[in-house]
Design goal:
- The protein is an alpha/beta fold.
- The chain folds into two domains: 137 residues, NAD(P)-binding Rossmann-like Domain (Rossmann fold), CATH 3.40.50; 157 residues, Dihydrodipicolinate Reductase, domain 2, CATH 3.30.360.10.
- The protein has nine helices and 14 strands.
- It has an eight-stranded mixed beta sheet, covered by helices on one side. Strands 3-2-1-4-5-6 form a six-stranded parallel beta sheet, sandwiched between helices.
- It is globular.
- The chain binds NADP nicotinamide-adenine-dinucleotide phosphate.
- NADP nicotinamide-adenine-dinucleotide phosphate (NAP) binds next to helix 1.
- The site of NADP nicotinamide-adenine-dinucleotide phosphate has 22 residues, from helix 1.
């Protein structure tokens, strides 16, 4: 491993820009390569972030000797092939959420990484915020008692554009895979297991994907999660964890929290604020680099078993909605 960890980025869209900005505050990170479908987009991105190597497609980037780890930022249906292409080139991979379209794709990615002892992680950036670490600590210490209910809402309204990534089935559109994945990942982080029962409902819109959905999860001991997701309905982005002896609330943007409200036992509510490093994407990147430097092929905060559990849960929900994508 060189002194700086050398990143390659696949895709030059919105999140690729945000992630590259996130890397810019990490002194031991360097973007050495970018891959795009077109030379124009690769050149434009490279000029913006001072990237020396440009490629057409993930296969070409996978052969770049100046790259240690690849960040995949293409639409969900491309995640599996882009990931496996990069693993085949011997690269470590951080792939955007949802990890792929379904659990059979996720299993194929994980199988390849494990067989070849290569680092692989789903870019669930939410897990790496200091506020989330604090929440895990409070829950594990039993400070709010036994967790009985988790709530999370990730719903927004975008302008109607049937061709957009959010609504187009060919690009894996729909609220569940785009933002419901955060709700489910949040429940998975707290309960650290898959739900035993799932009740759910969705509105499948004109393009054939879920514009909004609601899910209730039941666990063995009667604990629950109540979750909503949408791409055509705006709500608050709040979440909460209720225990037998207190609660934790994330009042705003629960997937990138800067503040939590905690109540334990007979104490008054307490507000805890956190400083943010860069734009928030820096945390997951820093953790990936720590894993690589320490020779770890799996991240303990976002383990591959959690990615499988999250995707299996989404498969089950989609089954209830009869939502099958054209590429499946
Ligand atoms: N972690 C987060 O906060 C977060 C936020 C938003 C999105 N995401 C995830 O990141 C992924 C990308 O989302 P995004 O919002 O960045 O999407 P986007 O703005 O549409 O960018 C996706 C990029 O992927 C490349 N691409 C490859 N094949 C494509 C195809 N057939 N159609 C369109 N683009 C294609 C394009 O780059 P080239 O033109 O250079 O090939 C495009 O710019 C999604 O899986 C999404 O769920 C994560």
């Amino acid at each position: 491993m060189t002194e700086k960890i050398r990143w390659g980025i696949v895709g030059t869209g919105r999140i690729a820009h945000l992630f590259a900005q996130g890397l810019s505050v990490l002194p031991d990170a360097q973007i050495t390569a970018v891959a795009s479908r077109t030379k124009e987009a690769a050149d434009k991105f490279a000029a913006e972030f001072n990237v020396p190597n440009r490629h057409i497609g993930s296969e070409a980037l996978a052969g770049d000797k100046d790259v240690d780890v690849v960040y995949i930022a293409t639409p969900h249906p491309m995640h599996k092939d882009d990931t496996i292409n990069c693993l085949k080139g011997g690269k470590a991979v951080l792939c955007e959420k949802p990890f792929a379209m379904n659990s059979s794709e996720v299993r194929a990615m994980i199988e390849y990484a494990k067989k070849n002892k290569l680092f692989l992680m789903e870019a669930m950036w939410m897990y790496f915020f200091p506020a989330m670490a604090k929440i895990r600590e409070i829950v594990a210490a039993g400070d709010i008692g036994e967790v009985r209910l988790v709530q999370a809402n990730f719903c927004f309204r975008r302008e109607w554009d049937p061709k957009s990534r959010l609504l187009n089935p060919q690009l894996g559109g729909g609220a569940l895979l785009d933002v419901g994945v955060y709700d489910i990942a949040f429940a998975q982080m707290i309960y650290v297991k898959e739900p035993m029962r799932i009740s759910s409902m969705a509105h499948i819109g004109k393009t054939g994907v879920d514009e909004q959905g609601s899910m209730i999860f039941g666990y063995e001991d009667g604990a629950m999660a109540v979750l909503t997701c949408a791409v055509q309905t705006e709500t608050l982005f709040e979440s909460a964890i209720y225990g037998t002896d207190g609660y934790i609330k994330i009042p705003h943007m629960f997937f990138q929290p800067d503040k939590i409200i905690v109540k334990t036992g007979q104490e008054q509510e307490k507000e805890i604020k956190f400083k943010r490093l860069g734009n928030g994407y820096s945390y997951e990147a820093a953790e990936v680099m720590r894993c690589l430097r320490d020779g770890e092929v799996e991240c303990p905060i976002m383990p591959l078993d959690a990615s499988i559990a999250i995707m299996k849960t989404m498969d089950k929900i989609r089954q209830q909605w009869n939502l099958v994508y054209p590429m499946e």
